């Protein structure tokens, strides 16, 4: 089948490369010329484990192409995926759909023969209706079906998530489109990944409801973590204790500095707005957004407390800047707010991240970046583990202690057993683990 992916960002590039790997003929279109030129030269603009290899092999096999020519590609396509960005609109939190609607207009001008237009971008309920209206208005002759097919992949595990999804959601009731989408996903169907067909609006809402539920689950365990600290309980064991209940499940119960990234913050906000507009407010998600926002600053206060209540003139070393490991994505990363508060309170901040430093340079000022955990720990009054990269899981604590001005470890991801850290002469604060232990 001939597939076109409009938007060579995270979702577009991963989906396009994986579809090509399934044997489809895929053209990825993006209007940013430098991005397309780089991709043609085999350079991947994002850090995603395994993506470079899959892009290179499929490009070499002639199944994956890159272009800025939207009109030419769409004319020959069986299926056109819209995978452009839907950032939060400035000021109000609604999803900005101008890229989606712009793509719809351009598709309308170029389609030939029956073409399925699929929104893969995360779009609010009713966007598919508007995409269809735009295309029909622009080109009344167009023989199209507009389908919703949200993507659930996680950064850092995107290839596996795409190839082994828990489910594939397809929102359309048009029989021809159902046939085509079955063909598109046939390789996964053979893997027994369930295909869920439903109405287009239902499919659009499934994506938001899924992300909001996960964000709420994280926020729930984070509030339990706060309570654990107050009452002398251990959130790791609470999470395990409740997670063993199959109705709850053990995933997404890891307490930490709050969720970040390109999806949860934006999608929870957009769902809140959609719900308000529909006069069906979602108080749980409103609270999730507010609690998560406060949490990032609360983490900075935890660091200040670990430093004896004052960071003015002190050096704080930050381990990990990206919103999670195995990505170079800094969007909405808790590290940003934590660092800003610490700087406002007069701290000198050093930082290291295996992949995120380049992006972080553009977002943070006054931070001194180093090339390793040990380099940034030199002379530090505290070291704060913000992102749980594998290389931070087995640090040489004796070496760290020898380098630091004061042996203080704040472990915002509960990576280290407190007793072990204390044995090495550190004072330790984790998240949701009763009171900081003294070294
Ligand atoms: C998320 C969804 O998982 C994915 O299905 C959707 O398509 C896009 O949004 P992603 O943002 O890549 O994916 O990362 P995810 O692994 O879900 O983590 C999101 C945030 O939650 C990170 O900041 C992470 O650190 C945090 N998190 C996650 C926790 O704090 N605790 C957990 O238990 C899980």
Describe this structure in words.
With 439 residues, this protein is an alpha/beta fold. Helices cover 45% and strands 13% of the residues. It is built from 18 helices and 14 strands. The strands form 3 sheets. Strands 3-2-1-4-5-6 form a 6-stranded parallel beta sheet, sandwiched between helices. Strands 11-10-9-12-13-14 form a 6-stranded parallel beta sheet. The model has no long low-confidence stretch (mean pLDDT 95). The site of uridine-5'-diphosphate-xylopyranose has 19 residues, from helix 10.
Name the helicity range: 40-55%
| Count of DSSP H/I helices | 18
Q: Which spans of ≥5 residues are poorly predicted at pLDDT below 50?
A: none
Q: Report how far apart the termini are.
A: 63 Å
């Amino acid at each position: 089948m001939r597939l076109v992916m409009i938007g060579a960002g995270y979702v577009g590039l991963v989906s396009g490369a994986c579809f090509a790997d399934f044997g489809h003929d895929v053209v990825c279109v993006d209007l940013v010329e430098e991005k397309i030129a780089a991709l043609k030269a085999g350079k991947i603009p994002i850090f995603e484990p395994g993506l470079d290899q899959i892009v290179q092999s499929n490009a070499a096999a002639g199944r994956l192409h890159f272009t800025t020519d939207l009109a030419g590609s769409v004319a020959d396509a069986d299926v056109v995926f819209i995978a452009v960005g839907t950032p939060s609109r400035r000021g109000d939190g609604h999803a900005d759909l101008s890229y989606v609607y712009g793509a719809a207009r351009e598709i309308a001008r170029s389609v030939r023969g029956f073409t399925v237009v699929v929104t893969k971008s995360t779009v609010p309920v009713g966007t598919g209706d508007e995409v269809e209206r735009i295309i029909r208005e622009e080109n009344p002759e167009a023989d199209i079906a507009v389908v919703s097919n949200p993507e659930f992949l996680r950064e850092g595990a995107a290839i596996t998530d795409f190839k082994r999804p828990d489910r594939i959601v397809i929102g359309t009731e048009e029989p021809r489109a159902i046939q085509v989408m079955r063909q598109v996903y046939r390789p996964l169907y053979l893997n027994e990944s369930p295909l869920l067909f439903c109405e287009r609006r239902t499919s659009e809402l499934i994506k938001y409801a899924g992300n909001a539920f996960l964000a709420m689950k994280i926020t729930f365990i984070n509030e339990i973590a706060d309570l654990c600290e107050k009452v002398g309980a251990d959130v790791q064991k609470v999470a395990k204790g409740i997670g063993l209940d199959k109705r709850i499940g053990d995933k997404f119960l890891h307490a930490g500095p709050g969720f970040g990234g390109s999806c949860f913050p934006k999608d929870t906000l957009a769902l809140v707005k959609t719900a308000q507009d529909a006069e069906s407010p979602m108080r749980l998600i409103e609270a999730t957004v507010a609690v998560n926002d406060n949490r990032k600053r609360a983490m900075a206060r935890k660091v200040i407390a670990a430093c004896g209540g004052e960071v003015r003139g002190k050096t704080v070393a930050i381990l990990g800047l990206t919103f999670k490991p195995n990505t170079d994505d800094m969007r909405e990363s808790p590290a940003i707010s934590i660092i800003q508060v610490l700087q406002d309170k007069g701290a000198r901040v050093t930082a290291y991240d295996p992949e995120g430093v380049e992006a972080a340079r553009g977002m943070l000022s006054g931070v001194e970046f180093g090339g390793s955990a040990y380099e940034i720990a030199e002379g530090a009054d505290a070291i704060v583990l913000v992102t749980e990269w594998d290389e931070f899981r087995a640090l040489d604590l004796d070496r760290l202690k020898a380098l630091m001005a004061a042996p203080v470890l704040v472990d915002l991801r509960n990576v280290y057993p407190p007793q072990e850290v204390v044995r090495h002469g550190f004072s330790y604060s984790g998240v949701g683990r009763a009171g900081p232990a003294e070294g």
